Amino acid sequence: MTSSPEAAPTGSAGAFDDVVFDVFARRCASRSALENITGRWGVLVLAALHDGTYRFNALRRRVDGVSEKMLAQTLHTLERDGLVVRTVLGQIPPRVEYSLTPLGRDTSAKLLELIGFLEDRMGEVVAARDGYDSARG
C-alpha cells in the first residue's frame, strides 16, 4: 500500500512500512518533523542531549541563548516527535530530566556529523561571507 504524503495513517511505527513520505510535499508529516529537528533550537537541544541526560536548567545553560519558554516548547515538540523523553523522578521537590530516545540518539548523531563538518569548514564560510560583503559593500 502506498499512501499520499498528505495523509499518513495513525498507529504503530510498523503501520508506516508501506507509506511513502515525501518531505517536499506541503502537508507531509516528515516536513514538520524536519522543521522541528532542524529549527534553531531543535538542533542544539538534540546535540546537547547527545552528551547525556540533562535537567531543564542545566540544558538551558548548555544551549546558550535559548529562553526558558523556547526551551520548554522545543523539548515538548521533540518529545511529541519521539526524539526526547521526559522523566519525572519521584523526589521532593520533583526532579525532571530529559534524555534522548533511540530515535533521538540516531538523529543527534547525524546532526553532530553535520555540526562537525560545518565547524571544520568555517574558514571557508567566513571567507565566502567576507567576499560577498566586500563585493556588495
Automatic annotation (TrEMBL):
It comes from the Bacteria. Residues 28-126 form the HTH hxlR-type domain. Coiled coil: none annotated. Transmembrane segments: none annotated. Keywords: DNA-binding, Transcription, Transcription regulation. InterPro entries: HTH_HxlR, WH-like_DNA-bd_sf, WH_DNA-bd_sf. PANTHER family: HTH-TYPE TRANSCRIPTIONAL REGULATOR YODB, TRANSCRIPTIONAL REGULATOR, MARR FAMILY. This is Winged helix-turn-helix transcriptional regulator. It comes from Nocardiopsis mangrovi.
